[in-house]
What does this fold into?
Amino acid sequence: MHTAIYVRVSTEEQARDGFSIHAQKDKLTKYAEINDFEIIDYYIDDGISGKNLNERPEVTRLIEDVKKGKINNVLVYKLDRLTRSVKDLIYLIELFDKYGCTFNSQTEKIDTSNAVGRMFVKIIGIFAEFERENLAERVTLGYEQKTREGNYTNCNGVFGYDYVVGLGVLNINQTEAYYVKKIYEWYLSGSSMLGIAKKLRELNVSTKRGGRWNQSTISSILRNPLYIGHIRYGVNKKNGFEVIGKSVDPLIDEEIFYKVQELITKNNKFKSQKYSDDGYFVRTLKCGCCGSKYHIKQQFQKGKKYITYICNGHNSCCNLSSFSHNKLERAFIKYLENIKPFNFNPIIIDDNDMDINLISGMIVNLKNNFLELNNRERKLFIERFIREIVVNKVVDDVLVEKVEFI
It folds into this structure.
């Protein structure tokens, strides 16, 4: 049997419990040799969850090789290594069966070459999915409870602090803490979030994970209560809450932090205000230099309103200057004037010169076209209906094959 060996681990805990990549490969190779399986290839997803199939490149490659007929047997150490979703499991089992490929699990002693094996694998899949969902609930409750007790649970850390693995505490990173304070200072002095991001890029300051400074990064720092010693859980969720951290040293004074929050709220109200119909181009404009959208700035001088269009990437990644609404409107009108008029060539038929035979032929052609379109529509409808039947397994495959389209 041309066999594919599939191996997956998702956490360090699995590696400690004996499910490491090396351990699985070794056991499955020996199992294949004992059963006279010819190993065609190894498919390895390292550090990837079994929740779904779409995010696992090696599963995708495995499926393609099954479809090509390259392999006719899939061997795994344990069923949940392949998937923890019953929906995905049923899909894979039916796919393997369609292309004449069997499925074997060394631990559960599963063989899908018979009906009992296929039933058994689906039952085990139900328990595997239950285990995953139950584990996810316990982990969520654990994180929530730890946060309520004042512990920080994000092991990735946050700009300004270093997370101590194993201890679950945050130590101040003095270099990053300096720039956290500068970000708050710059924003209170009138700098925009985009302007601050540009300034940090010019200073070659690295983000926590080496990414690019942008508006959302600055916004996250300015809104995070961790900098005053508070830990939050469930951001923007109904069950979200905020507690005082046990071992979090604040970087920002509370008075400064809440001043920043008031300023952000005030600026957001200004940004979200509804503009009049005078700036109707704003919803259709796109910057030709950076691809960003535009926003409007309204000014009033001596009772007259002036509208200016400004690129959202200005002062960040785009150097294109702003321009007035009147200038844009003149350019648009000029563009319309340069469009050549459409040349219509209507055929006017005089009642006295009508050719009855010609008109009769046109009517027949129209009727034939109508019937052809109607038949095509019915055929498409029936095809779609049959596909839905096949997908939902309502009709036996043999019966579906005998259906003829009208």
